[in-house]
Amino acid sequence: MTSLGTDISTPIGADGQIGLDPYLRVVSELECLAQALARRLVTPRGSLYRHPLYGYDVRQWLNADLDDADLAEIERASAEELRADERVDDVAVVASFADEALSLVITVRALTGQTFRFILAVGQVTVALLRLESL
After folding, report:
1. Rounded to 5 degrees, what are φ and ψ at 93?
2. What one-character DSSP code corresponds to residue 31?
3. pLDDT by residue (tens digit) across 11-36?
4. For residue 25, what are the contacts with CB-CB under 8 A and spacing of at least 6?
5. The CATH classification of domain 6-134, taken from the options 3.10.450.40, 3.40.50.970, 3.10.180.10, 3.20.20.60
6. Are residues 43 and 57 in contact, defined by beta-carbon separation less than 8 angstroms?
7. Partner residues linked to 81 by β-bridges
8. Residues 36-50: what's their mean pLDDT?
9. Residue 63 contacts residue 69 (beta carbons within 8 Å)
10. What whole-number distance in Å separates Cα of residue 124 and Cα of residue 101?
11. Which residue has the higher pLDDT, 20 or 83?
C-alpha cells in the first residue's frame, strides 16, 4: 500500500504563520498530507525560489468585496493547487465568507483511497486548520 508520507510537523501557529513544531513532532499519513495541502493554500505563488508555480495564497482575497463568482474562483483555484500534490487523487473545495473570515471546507481523496476532510479558516491575522477528520 502506498504511504502518504512522514514529515516533521509544520502546524499553523496562533500568529497565522506556518512553522516547525518546536518539539519536532513527526506526523504521518493524513495529518502529514493535510499540513502539506494547507501550506499550499497560504504560500504566495512564486515565493519559493526552486518551485515558482507552487502555492495559491487564499489570504489575497481577505480585503476584497467577495461575491459568488469570487468564491467560485477561490474554490476552482484552490482545488487546482491541491491537485498538484502527487498524493491527491481528487479534491472538492467549498468556500464561504462570513464575519471577515474566509472558510474553506476541503474534501480530499488520496491516491491510497483514503478520504478525509479538513477546514481551513483564514482571517486577517490568523490561519487555522480547524478540523481534520477521516471519512
Report:
1. -125, 130
2. H
3. 766 555 666 677 778 887 888 899 99
4. 8, 9
5. 3.10.450.40
6. yes
7. none
8. 92
9. no
10. 7
11. 83
Amino acid letter at 22?
P
Q: Smallest Cα–Cα separation from 62: which of 107, 125, 124?
A: 124
Q: Which residues contact 125 (CB under 8 A, 6 or more apart)?
A: 15, 16
CB 73, CB 66: distance < 8 Å: no
DSSP string spanning 52-89? TT----GGGGTTS---HHHHHHHHHHHHHHHHTSTTEE
Contact 49, 28 (CB under 8 A): no
Distance CA 91, CA 19 (A): 25
Sequence-separated (6 or more) residues with CB below 8 Å from residue 99: none
CB 42 within 8 A of CB 18: yes
Cβ 57 vs Cβ 45: under 8 Å: yes
The grid coordinates listed for 116 are 478525509
- With beta carbons less than 8 A apart as the criterion, state whether 109 and 126 touch: no
